[in-house]
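Researcher: I'm comparing several assemblies side by side, and this is the next one on my list. It has 233 residues spread over two chains. Same procedure as the others: predict the full complex and return the structure.
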Amino acid sequence: AQTVTQSQPEMSVQEAETVTLSCTYDTSESDYYLFWYKQPPSRQMILVIRQEAYKQQNATENRFSVNFQKAAKSFSLKISDSQLGDAAMYFCAYRSGLSNFGNEKLTFGTGTRLTIIP
Amino acid sequence: GAGVSQSPSNKVTEKGKDVELRCDPISGHTALYWYRQSLGQGLEFLIYFQGNSAPDKSGLPSDRFSAERTGGSVSTLTIQRTQQEDSAVYLCASSLQATGKDTQYFGPGTRLTVL
């Protein structure tokens, strides 16, 4: 079974600075997808960024980028120019690339609570 | 609406009562997922639908939990004889298909409190 580990329960960053959230995962599969979701106090999980394992290029979405190290099974999220609206719980998630029984679900890490200091 | 919607937003019930939680997926999405988020267990998968069929019910914690989906759209998660350990946020997500490349989009969740 796949596991996702987020070793930082809480992080804080000064507004306008850069912060990196860590995520490692364990899998024996070669085809998979990785995601970062943001959950503000409103509870809604919002997709921040996704990475296909077969792509070597790191995904970027505006101020958000990832450092995907497939061999090390590491998938960190970098937030540049942090803004007050970035304050939330951030979850790393894994999804198998296989489309058969038992592989459709997302497996989540335990989350990192990010605080933005004005 | 454009996103996944869930109702009610909050539900308080007494131990032993039955509850129904509803999810409206994004229009055109064939796959629908239920997850549970609790302090002790984190985010855990409950059940998944492809169309009206539920190929994977492996995450349902007990036979008190059931779910159905009708018309390939709305889904209802039913918890019978609720227990205090059922208190959690129940999240619904949908995706275009049930393949890895299809991103799961989440609703705002239903917070269930069992007294």
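Model: For your comparison table: The radius of gyration of chain B is 13 Å.
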